[in-house]
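It would be a great kindness if you could assist me with a short task in structural biology. I am sending you one protein, given as its amino acid sequence and as whole-number tokens for its backbone shapes. I would ask you to consider whether the tokens describe a fold that such a sequence might reasonably adopt. The full record is reproduced below for your convenience.
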Amino acid sequence: MKLYYYQRRDRAANFGDELNAWLWPQLLPDGFDQDDSTLFIGTGTLLNSRLPERTAPAKRLIIFSTGAGYERPLRQIPRHWQIVCVRGPLSAKQLKLPIETAIADGGLLIHRCFTASGQKTARVGFMPHIHHATYAQPAWQQVCQQLNLRYIDPRWPVEQVLTAIGETQLLLAEAMHGAIAADALRVPWIPLITSPRILCFKWQDWCASMQLPYRPQLLPPLADYPRYGRGLRSGLRSARHWVGCAWPSPNSMMQAAARLDQILTRCEPYLSQDCLLEHRLEQLESALANLSENLA
């Protein structure tokens, strides 16, 4: 069985995707080889109309905690797919699956595979979406330095990201798997959006699985960002925000810093209940154990 996950065309690492290569071999230590007749699909927003053609040579696909959202929805699930579980209830509904298949994002299993140092060396961390880290890393680093925030780059190696998140008292997260990792490590987090690039559907899907609302804090886009000419992913409330932004603004860094400071002063952080996290972990582990038995 071979591990399949999204890999960027520019080959730049992205924490949410690279998490697959770090996490699943630990949980299924004898499960993977280079036999691509069976593919294991784990974390990622991959359940869409493009996945069948992208995995066409495979004779069997195992779907484990994956989410729907990008591209066009699947019209029907191919017969050779084995859907063990999906990210949340929105994915289950879109794919017309039983609600029992909606557990949570498998990234929560970080809780079982990584132990934070216990030292809190930063009061607040900031982790942007991969696209915004790519386009505006220097600008975001400067904003973070100004506000004494720890900048956490989603392109760093997985364990470097996990260490940085684990050592912060609070994470400002635009990267969804940054928030998932924070929740798994019991670090409170606040969701952000800094451009219409963000897909709210996948956040809503995961948050629903953890019985949390999704009310992201909106920031003005930085001048370093490219213009997005094709629609908005972030929903109606965000659409009104982007239309009202002067984009790009020469004062965008100053505006972003002021908004972040305001968020830290006024906004309550998120964290799922300990008992619910444990329940989701047990559900994921049980599903993984059953899968492992069937693969043996």
Q: What stands out?
A: The radius of gyration is 19 Å. The beta strands are 2-4, 38-41, 45-47, 60-68, 81-86, 122-127, 150-151, 168-173, 189-193, 217-218. The chain has two domains: 2-112+276-295, 120-272.
